[in-house]
Amino acid sequence: MRVVIQRVSRASVEVENQVIGEIGKGLMILVGIENSDGQEDIDWLCKKICNLRIFDDEAGVMNKSLIEIGGGILAISQFTLHARTKKGNRPSYINAAKPDHSIPLYESFLLALEKESGKKPQRGQFGAEMQVALVNDGPVTITIDSKNKE
Prior knowledge:
two-stranded antiparallel sheet; 3 helices; RNA-binding; DTD-like_sf
């Protein structure tokens, strides 16, 4: 499982010109799921995400977690995070999990984020054309792959 985490002052997602999810200060997370992913990947990532110390403390040092600041979460499924680009100019998405595998894992990811953070995450709509808007605060952008834990 691969995620791109962005610290935001605000973020939203629209489908067909309707806002379906939005947050203020917090994390906007793009989530890529591959066939070999499972609950162990979800649990490890959610704990890591919610406890990353990437929010400023009173001294302006990145020393506080999402949990400590009570921030929001917007999590959006994005299969393109598993694009292979070695050959040619058209990315291959062969490593991205098909919906029958990825939808249940995305739902489980959202539940694990809620359990870990104590807040219900906002979400995108799986498989829809979405317009994502965000103000990256910092900017702070971090990528994490659950296959590279060490």
